[in-house]
Structure formats: structure tokens, C-alpha cells
Design goal:
Elements: E1 3-9, H1 17-28, E2 32-38, H2 46-56, E3 63-68, E4 79-84, E5 87-92, H3 98-103, E6 109-112, H4 128-142, H5 147-150, E7 168-170, E8 173-181, E9 187-189, H6 193-199, E10 206-211, E11 214-219, E12 232-236, E13 242-246, H7 251-255, E14 262-266
Parallel strand pairs: 1-2, 1-3, 3-5
Antiparallel strand pairs: 4-5, 4-6, 7-8, 8-9, 8-14, 9-13, 10-11, 10-14, 12-13
Helix pairs in contact: 1-4
Length: 267
């Protein structure tokens, strides 16, 4: 049976960091396959990393999730491993893991990774991806260690949550947040199709989208090809959330929209 480590980080590809973590895993667990989810999370952006992991988790093979977006590396923040029904999540206790763990049904046990035998000795404390998280993920994925070997239990209410904004849903109006802007300039919101139905927005009608002080009349469609080249559109994206896009263009640029900005949808 193939064992997997699903690896997400903000390390990028310009330096050796990703390759070094792969090397640590290969030395400790040569039969484990590492699947790179993404290493392009903005440096230190825990929220963006958490959302990327949450979008991806239902499509990843069962095994170990190794997630490292860790601006607090070397401080008192905990290193944790959380056991869920789809495998074990390994990473910093800074909210990075929390939304994805919740999405898969929560954790039945969480431990603090403190066992010195499960880490690589280092003079420095700024590369826990290599020295702490990578070794723990490798040993857990290979079966050379079990969760109890990592360290003491952590009560669930002591794990750092990540608080994400909910949309404000009213009749014929939703105040949303632009959660994510992808490399194409598509802007995903925190609004679901169920929110749209509850507000009575969409269907065969266009939607008034307000960004800042500017209103845009945007058609609700299923596919990009239903509008002309260069036109705005509103649709359900691949993650099942409401997103703004421009056929053949960049919605974020057209709308002057950035992540975290408020967007109002009106019927």
C-alpha cells in the first residue's frame, strides 16, 4: 500500500527548502510518496495557506498532511499532529491546520510534537519544516512512529483556531469577502450557492456587484463561454463557492479588488 505525505508550504521554489524537506522524508521513509500541493503560499500568510489546504483536502489521498506556513517558527508556538478520519495533520499550531481539520470532521486526538528522537538536531530554530515537521511526517507516514510517540496530548480547546469571516445574508443582499484571488485574477468569495438562494439572488437574473463605490451588473452563468470575451461573470467555482471572473481577463484588475476586501451582491 502506497503511503502519502501531502505537502503544502510557503517555501517557494527559488531556494532549496522544498527539496531539503523532500530529502529528509526520503532518508527517513523511502517508501513514502510526497505529493506537493503547493509551495506558492505568500510568505507567512497563514490564512492563505489554511484556505488553500481547505480547498484541496477533499481531493488528496489519505495519509499525512504536512503543512508549513510558520511565521512564528522558533517561538513558543506549538508543533502539533492531529489525527482525523482521513489521516494525520502535521504543522504549526497557528490556525493553519484548523479549517481543513474541521472540514474532514475534526480530530479525535491532538498531540504536541516534543519527542527529541523525532526531530533533526540543529543549531538554529528557523527551519522546523526540515527539523521538526518533516521528520515527524515521515515517521508517521511510514508507520515507524504512532501519534503517541510524538509527545503529550493537547486539549482541543487549546489549539489555535483560524477565524474566517462569514457572509452577511439578507433578503436580496449579501455582504461578502473576497477570500482568494488566483493567478488568473478570479476572485473567490466566502459565499455559497445556498447563501445566494437564501438571499434570493441569481438564477436567470444579473447580479449587482458593488466593489468600493462602484456597481457592476454581472450575469450569473455556469461557464465562461456564456459571456463575451472581456466580460465579467459570476459563477460557482471549482471549490463550490461564488466567484467573480472575466472571460479571457483578470477580474481582480477590472474590479480593483484585493483579498480581504468587502464585496456586496444584490439581486
Amino acid at each position: 500500500m502506497t503511503r502519502f505525505i501531502n505537502f503544502l508550504s510557503d517555501f517557494g521554489r527559488d531556494d532549496e527548502f522544498v527539496g531539503v524537506v523532500h530529502g529528509v522524508v526520503a532518508r527517513l521513509a523511502p517508501d513514502v510518496t510526497v505529493l506537493d500541493v503547493t509551495h506558492s503560499v505568500r510568505p507567512g500568510d497563514v490564512r492563505a495557506g489554511a484556505l488553500a489546504l481547505t480547498r484541496a483536502i477533499q481531493y488528496l489521498p489519505e495519509g499525512v498532511v504536512l503543512a508549513v506556513v510558520d511565521p512564528g517558527v522558533g517561538t513558543g508556538r506549538r508543533a502539533i499532529a492531529a489525527r482525523t478520519q482521513v489521516g494525520i495533520f502535521v504543522g504549526p499550531d497557528n490556525g493553519l491546520l484548523s479549517p481543513a481539520v474541521a472540514m474532514v470532521g475534526g480530530a479525535d486526538r491532538i498531540v504536541s510534537i516534543e519527542n527529541p528522537e523525532m526531530r533533526i538536531p540543529s543549531a538554529g530554530e528557523t527551519f522546523h519544516g526540515r527539523d521538526v515537521f518533516g521528520p515527524a511526517a515521515a515517521l508517521l507516514a511510514s508507520g515507524e512512529a504512532v501519534l503517541e510517540d510524538c509527545g503529550p496530548d493537547v486539549p482541543p480547546d487549546e489549539v489555535t483556531p483560524l477565524l474566517l469571516p462569514l457572509p452577511e445574508v439578507e433578503p436580496a443582499r449579501i455582504t461578502a469577502t473576497a477570500w482568494w484571488i488566483d493567478r488568473f485574477g478570479n476572485a473567490q468569495t466566502n459565499v455559497s450557492p445556498e447563501d445566494m438562494a437564501l438571499a434570493g439572488i441569481g438564477g436567470e437574473n444579473t447580479v449587482t456587484v458593488r466593489v468600493g463605490a462602484t456597481d457592476h451588473e454581472v450575469p450569473w452563468v455556469t461557464a465562461y463561454g456564456e459571456v463575451e470575451e472581456g466580460d465579467l461573470l459570476l459563477h460557482v467555482d471549482g471549490s463550490g463557492l461564488i466567484a467573480l471572473a472575466v472571460r479571457g481577463g483578470n477580474a481582480a484588475e477590472v474590479l480593483r479588488l484585493s483579498e480581504g476586501q468587502k464585496v456586496t451582491l444584490q439581486g
